Amino acid sequence: MSKSLTPSPDDAFEMLITGNQRFVTGTPEHPNQDAARRAETAPAQSPFAVMFGCSDSRLAAEIIFDQGLGDLFVVRTAGHVVGSEVLGSIEYGVSVLDCPLVVVLGHDSCGAIAAASAAADGGRAPSGFVRDVVERVTPSVLAARAAGRESADEILHEHIRHTVDLLLERSRILAERVAAGRLAVAGLSYRLADGSAQLVASHGLTRTAVPAG
Ligand SMILES: [Zn+2]
Predict the structure, then answer these.
(1) 54 CA to middle of ligand 1, Å?
(2) pLDDT at residue number 212
């Protein structure tokens, strides 16, 4: 069994964005989805990125980034809210599987963000454990509004940035790897209609700058 060389954080990010561009333009290659890849990855996995995204059914990670078996270590929760199981899963991908990249993937028309916005407006809080999800999105909604950023996109981007910062605040393993140049943590905003993913936050990428605004 040969373990492929771990790419740099920048190279991993480029692999991901290149795959997304293939998906956007309707020219996917569907790589690493055949029986040979299945056999190759059965003994061990070495994914090149941890994908932490919203559970939304339209955010299927391997499809929208045109990847295959063994490429992405995927963790998804509604509204990409963070709890201890999420942190443990991401840390596993980074410290045990040696992923050089963690991506937070949010998207427009996110139901969890809409519910948190409605609750912040005085609407009824949802019942059951859905309330727990909404309550974990609410700080992002309130922070965006306090800063005068009221549009849906601005609230979404605030929540993505907040999630990236939360991962680095809560996980010493992630923060240390970023400081050592071995890991990047990036926040991407996905547009459902055209399938594109835009960088809105990053720590540890050197080739790619987050556009202003
Ligand atoms: Zn969502």
Answers:
(1) 5
(2) 60
